[in-house]
Amino acid sequence: MDQTKQEEDYGYDLFPERKPRTKKLTLAQSLFTFNHKCQVMLNFAMETSPYAKLLLSAMKNSGCQAFKDRHFSCEDCDGTVSGGFDAASSQIVLCQNNVHQQAHMNRVVTHELIHAFDHCRAKVDWFNNYRHLACSEIRAANLSGDCSFTNELTRFNFGLKEHHQECVRGRALRSILAVRKISREEAEKIVDEVFDSCFNDHAPFGRIPHSRKEAKFANRDYANRDRYYANL
Ligand SMILES: [Zn+2]
């Protein structure tokens, strides 16, 4: 090592925190922080959200146990997307740059787990059959709490009893249009064709969990159902 190089180093290699900060380092650090925060919130969702817990046990019982390290990935995403399910790799993507609150994380994890559950239990043709995609989007919007009263309340959309259905329909439409290049008319037609049967398919919840409390009850019922089968 030549003398100049050695002098320039000033031994900072031993104390990385004391290195003069560059723009690049700051960016890397902020990414690390986002990623770390995303992992922490994901852990918390998997361990405490009754929605996520029920879906995770249902997947395990269907032979598709989801592992945090293998089936979830915190990444930066474009635009305002919060998450996605990559059917090709069976991975749930969580958008670390767009999800900053625990309640939001819980909903995204739940929404994507419903897609993962559908992927596991049925032979879903995500890429060629738009009705399959539409059905899973309807179920995800209906059962994840995306359209629950408090979420709608904060969006100033409360009022009608049928509003839940309208919210589910609208969200399913937006999700399809975000990922597939089809016209709005075409998407509306497909959603309306499958709406009733998919809206009424509440598996694995058994009912629409409109609140955390209802999801807790559903989770307890599910666990008991499980125990009953286990004793047969
Ligand atoms: Zn979705």
Q: How does this model look, in words?
A:
By secondary structure, this protein is mainly α. The protein folds into two domains: 32-121, Zincin-like (2-Layer Sandwich); 125-203, no CATH class. The chain contains ten helices and three strands, in the order ααααβββαααααα. It has helices spanning 3-9, 23-48, 50-61, 68-71, 102-121, 130-143, 149-154, 163-179, 184-199, 212-231; strands spanning 72-75, 83-86, 91-95. It has a three-stranded mixed sheet. The radius of gyration is 22 Å and the shape is globular. It starts with a helix and ends with a helix. The model is unreliable at 1-7 (pLDDT under 50). The structure holds zinc ion. Zinc ion binds next to α5 and α6.
